[in-house]
Amino acid sequence: MSALAIAALTKSYTRHLLDGKRSVVLRNIDLALEPGTFTVINGPSGAGKSSLLRCIYRSALPDSGRIDLRTNGATVDIAAADERTVLRMRREHLAMTTQFLSVVPRVSALDLVRAQGVDRAGAVELLASLGLPPDLHGVPPATFSGGQRQMINLAIVLARSRPLLLLDEVTASLDPTRRNAVLQALLARKHAGVTMLGVFHDPPKMPGLVDRVLTLRDGTLHAA
């Protein structure tokens, strides 16, 4: 049984600065994720990769189609679920990291991770595993570089321990050493049975991490 099954998913946007032109970014997307697997989606900028993740997370509402999330023996269609159900799915089953971190002023990186329900030791270990220097753990991320903010974004999501993770360009701003640290952390989650769907311009090369690479082009998915 798939952890996530998407059927005939379509999403379009109205371009208000282009005289209301309607742009279709996802066309009848079908996709199934098996439990404990890592699927990568790549493709050109503007192809709709992030839109697909946002539809699954329901921060964007699809025009049509189903997004069936398997939860404790039951299935929830995220595309049609009410807001209360969507929030419950996020609390219990689904997490997403975006390319940008909306920082809380004067709250340290360590406290942002601890706020997800982990103790201090666990938060320190998680931040260290992603490559954030210890002297920055007590510093608010508002002062961090783009790559360091990406690490905090991912740390927050990993601390939530959801069975399905949606990852949007989590290594885009990282140097090779920290990129490797992040991929090692994701590999550990995969070994723990977490299902992951990640958007990457360049699919990770780490052995054992990626099970499948798909390309999103002209609104449709293709085998890479």
Give a short overview.
The chain has 224 residues and is an alpha/beta fold.
Name its key features.
single chain; 224 residues; alpha/beta; 6 helices; 10 strands
Written description of the protein model:
The protein is α/β, with parallel strands linked by helices. It contains six helices and ten strands, in the order E-E-E-H-E-E-H-E-H-H-H-E-H-E-E-E. The protein has a six-stranded mixed beta sheet, with helices on both faces. A four-stranded antiparallel beta sheet has the order 2-1-4-5, covered by helices on one side. The longest helix has 16 residues. The relative contact order is 0.20.
Radius of gyration: 17 Å
The count of strands amounts to 10
Give the overall form: globular
Name the structural class. Answer: alpha/beta
Number of helices, where a helix is a run of at least 4 consecutive DSSP H or I residues: 6
Q: In what range is the share of β-strand residues?
A: 25-35%
In spatial order, strands of the major sheet run 6-7-8-3-9-10
Assembly context of the chains: single chain
Low-confidence stretches: none
Task: Give the helix level as a range of percent.
Answer: 25-40%
Reading the helices and strands in chain order gives EEEHEEHEHHHEHEEE
- Main β sheet profile: 6 strands, mixed
Question: For the residues shown, what is the average pLDDT?
Answer: 91
Task: State the end-to-end CA separation.
Answer: 24 Å
